Structure formats: structure tokens, C-alpha cells
Amino acid sequence: MTEATAPDHGPLTGVRVVELAGIGPGPFAAMLLADLGADVVRVDRPGGPGLGIDPARDVTNRNKRSVVVDLKAPDGPCRVLGLAERADILVEGYRPGVAERLGVGPEDCLARNPRLVYGRMTGWGQDGPLADRAGHDIGYIAVTGALGMTGEPGRPPAAPANLLGDYAGGSLYLAVGVLAALHHARATGTGQVVDAAIVDGTAHLTSMIHGMLAAGAWQDRRGANLLDGGCPYYGTYETSDGGHMAVGALEPRFYAEFLRLLDLDDLDDLDDLAGAHGDVTRWPELRTRVAERFASRTRDAWTTLFEGTDACVAPVLSLREAPHHPHLAARATFTDHAGITQPAPAPRFSATPTTVRTGPARPGADTEDVARDWGVPGLVSPPSNPQRKASS
Description:
Layout: E1 16-20, H1 25-35, E2 39-44, E3 64-68, H2 76-85, E4 89-92, H3 98-102, H4 106-112, E5 117-122, H5 137-143, H6 163-188, E6 192-197, H7 198-205, H8 207-214, E7 234-238, E8 244-248, H9 252-262, H10 267-274, H11 283-294, H12 299-306, E9 313-315, H13 326-331, E10 334-337, E11 340-343, H14 367-374
Parallel strand pairs: 1-2, 1-4, 2-3, 4-5, 5-6
Antiparallel strand pairs: 7-8, 8-9, 10-11
């Protein structure tokens, strides 16, 4: 048994996953399943994906194994169907109808394996007026209202990288969906198709905000609310050295501690500013005072001052700085594997701990091992009749 399929590497040990190679949210969801212990076999296409980075550094392909299959070749679909027949979950991220045209759609796969969970990752979903259109994270989160909540009023919305749509609204919902369907399949013997659309997941993420909007506790405009930067004690401030501090002193007792440590003049002034907590009309005044104080010292100085307190203030760190934060270092939130610093698997399990077992899968490097372990010899030796979709 190979390292990638060794036992006791997480709660999903023993679960087999086929990932039809793509970029973005599909590979990330498959990485999450792999981090949790699943044996994920990534079916790469000849020539590799279009991400444009060295496959040896593509962390989203860690803990996986790779085979290369040309789905446009006569024997390509048969090879993938051979894997699907032995899998618990299949993940694909093509536009609607593409997998069907390639001969590896849900109907073909479920005919071979009725217990299979077939996960589909798209931006717009499998139906609807935009289902066949191209798109990217920023467009998906734009139409859900989520993008319109980010950034300062009077300026264009701020793009939150591709974390909100691709990964939060897409990958995580696909992972939850296929695991829920796997539970159902194991209870009933019946697989199903999971349609994970980034627009659906991102819209779902805004549930609390829609509740606040309905209750009159949220204004439908940017930078005017408690959690969108409109509130002066929930936002970011620049320091004297060009760094930034993040403030989240929402509750009154945390806010009081925040004001005390910020050292705004004298006690009488503190008592006066305490009243600005719930007075929206005084928020601009409070923001100005807070900004002036933060601008008087460096980020490191403020970090030291607020360290160990309940004022809910933290330094804004860069990607390279984050792994060295004392708390994250103590928890080993980041790990180093094969010379790459990367986030460690999450969440954590008391009985079935997870780990980074292998580095990014190299396209096609594991074909022989997968063929042996999964009992699919056709991956190595072409079937005698590649046109026939029989068990390979």
C-alpha cells in the first residue's frame, strides 16, 4: 500500500475520490477531502491545467495522486469510468454538458456505479439563463450582493481575492454536499448528483445579513453598518509606519477596554467616548479620534500594547508574516512540507488526526500505483476494445 493510501490519515480514510482536473474551487474541494484522509485520484489532461504555475508548487494538489487521461481519445472515457466504478465520490468542474459530451457525465458514471456521489462544481450552476456562460469569482459574488458589501462608501467595491466566491461559496459547499450525499449513499445504497454553484453558496453565506436587513438592522449600502467597515470600532486603521491594525471591539466591555488601552486623552474623555458606542451620529467623530491615535505609533508598538487583552485588536499581517504569528506558530496553523510553507489541514480531529502526507501530485506520476490499488489495469494498458465502455 502506498503512502497516499496508508491508514489512519484522517476521518475519510478509505473513501475514494476521482477528481477530473480543473482549476480553482474544484481542486480545492478535492484537496480538502484529501486532507481529511480520502484517497483522491486526480485525472489530469495531457498538457496539464491552465493555471500557469509549477505543478510541484500547486498546494491544492497535495495529498492526492495523479493519472493522465485524454478524455478525447477513444479509450479515454472507459478509463475514467473504470475509476468511477470503484469510487465513492467524483468531482468535476466543467461547464454544463461538457462531461456528458466527453462520456463521463452522471448518467454514464451512475450506470457503472449506482452508489456514486457525483459532485459538480460550477459558477452559475447546472441550469438558469447564465449556466452556459463563462465567469470568474468576482462576477459570481457580484450578482449575489456579496461584493457590493465590501470596500469603502463612495469608492468601487473591493475585490476579496477569490476567497469569498471560489472557495467559501464554492469549494466548501461542494465538500459539504458530497459528504452529505455520501452519508445518504451509504445508508441507502443510492448515489446522486450534487450541483454546487458558487452563486448559490455565496448567496447562502449572506443569510445573517439578509436577516438583519429584514429586521431593519442593516442598511443596503456599503460602509454604513456594524460589520462592513461603517462602524469605527469594527474596521482597520493605518499606523505610523504604514502598517494596519484590525479592530473588532463590538461588545460594550471589549469596547471599553479598547478605549482605555487606546489612551484617548483623559478619563473624562473616555467616559464621553463610551457613549459613542451606540450613537451612530457620533461614529464619524469617533473614527477620526481612533485614526489619529493609531497613526501615532507603529504597528508593532500597537501590537505589543494590545497583546494579551480583550480589546479585540490584531495586527494586519501579510501572507509571509502570518505563519510567524506567535499564536499560529504555537498551534502549527501553517506547516512546511517539501520546502513549501502552507496552511495545515483543518479542522482538527481528536481521534483521526490529519496531516500533509505528500506534496503536490505530479501529473501522471501515480498511474501504475493507482491502477494496482484501485484494480483498474486499463489505466496502464489500453483495453482491448477501447470503444466499448465495459469494465476495465
